[in-house]
Amino acid sequence: MNNKSIIDRIVNSILDVLPKGKNFYPLHEPSFEGNEWKYLKECLDTGWVSSVGKYVDEFEKKLADFTGAKMAIAAVNGTSALQICLKIVGVTTGDEVLTNALTFVATSNAISYCGGIPHYVDSNEKTLGLCPISLRAYLKEIAELRNNECFNRKTGNRIKALVPMHVFGHPADIDPLLEVANEFSISAVEDAAESLGSYYKGKHTGTFGKISALSFNGNKTITTGGGGAILTNDSELGRLAKHLTTTAKVPHKWEFFHDMIGYNFRLPNICAALGCAQLEQLPGFIQKKRMLAEKYKNAFNDIPEVRFVTEPSFGKSNYWLNTLIFRKDFSHLRDDLLEKTNSMGIQTRPAWRLNSDLPMFQNCPKMALPVAEYLEKSVVNIPSSSNLIPSE
Ligand SMILES: *Cc1c(COP(=O)(O)O)cnc(C)c1O
């Protein structure tokens, strides 16, 4: 088949799935069909819009209930949440932090804000997340333990943390990754920004590492406008996270006493109100997103040049962003598909550029990244909003 007819078949398959009669299909748009107006109006009517109010507590409680984490701490965005997670596990100036080369830049930025140095690890072709096998082989080669701390023999830096990111919402293969982290005395912090509503072996993503971060940016599965959260099963770490994100103020009736350099990273009450309304609809959003993925899967079944990414056998995915991957030998068609779909009002996007190739991170340590490099040039994300499945 010639290139044009391959692209045409892919586009027709996408059109088969999308509801008719719109002239623009965004990659991911939020849906506000619940109590959003009611809760927001209440914030405005009572004046509780900012750093104090009942919705922050309620949102944290509902998040903990939904994810099964012992504690959830709301934060101003996912990047800040991840920064605090890394600080809490002890990442400090000069420490290396192992993470995906194929991730949104926020992962690397959060590491940098703590003074850390991202150290890039290759992906697994099936899960799109970190590959535990190549990670272990690589650490055996470059890492050594001294006094139960891990050091990079090449750079001399301490390797303090491992940050697996659950790519496009698909759960990474967490158990073997945690085994590697344990073996090398490295703390695991999950970047679960994309995976609210995704599970690994029946347990919610973001509840495996010591502490982890979620995002509620406008393009994520639920949104608070901008926002994020920290999850942990360790109450002590959770209390520290709350303290650090709220200027480290020691509670008192009137005194302003702060006992650490804290951060103004709390989520405003008005954002939490939106979040409470969104969380009520989350099971419905996920159900629709999974139905949409099922439709795409069937639609692409007989197009051998692409693979539609489905959830791994060990997990359940929220299908945050549906993903097509051109098979080897067909990656050169990616830009034709991006060009054609976007010109028709079907918003599609390539994967992120590998963080290891961005100017500010290009000198950071990394292992060989053949899978990440293949994915970088072969992935196309396609419209994934829950509202592409009509409500009954
Ligand atoms: C969205 C996202 C973040 C950051 O979240 P913000 O709320 O936008 O700061 C971090 N990591 C990954 C992988 C993300 O997709």
Provide a descriptive summary of the structure in words.
- With about 400 residues, this protein is an alpha/beta fold.
- The protein has two domains: about 5-30 and about 280-355 and about 375-390, Alpha-Beta Complex (Aspartate Aminotransferase, domain 1), CATH 3.90.1150; about 35-280, Aspartate Aminotransferase, domain 2 (3-Layer(aba) Sandwich), CATH 3.40.640.
- It has helices spanning about 5-15, 35-45, 55-65, 80-90, 105-115, 130-140, 175-185, 235-245, 270-300, 335-345, 370-380, and strands at about 70-75, 95-100, 115-120, 145, 150, 160-165, 185-190, 200, 205, 210-215, 230, 305-310, 315, 320-325, 350, 380.
- The strands form four sheets. It has a seven-stranded mixed beta sheet with strand order 1-11-10-7-6-2-3.
- The radius of gyration is 21 Å and the shape is globular.
- Bound molecules: pyridoxal-5'-phosphate.
- Pyridoxal-5'-phosphate (PLP) binds near residues 77, 78, 107 and 193.
Strand content: 15-25%
Structural class: alpha/beta
Separation of the first and last Cα atoms: 40 Å
**CATH fold-type name of the largest domain:** Aspartate Aminotransferase, domain 2
Q: What is the H-and-E element order?
A: HHHEHEHEHEEEHEEEEEHHEEEHEHE
The spatial strand order of the largest sheet comes to: 1-11-10-7-6-2-3
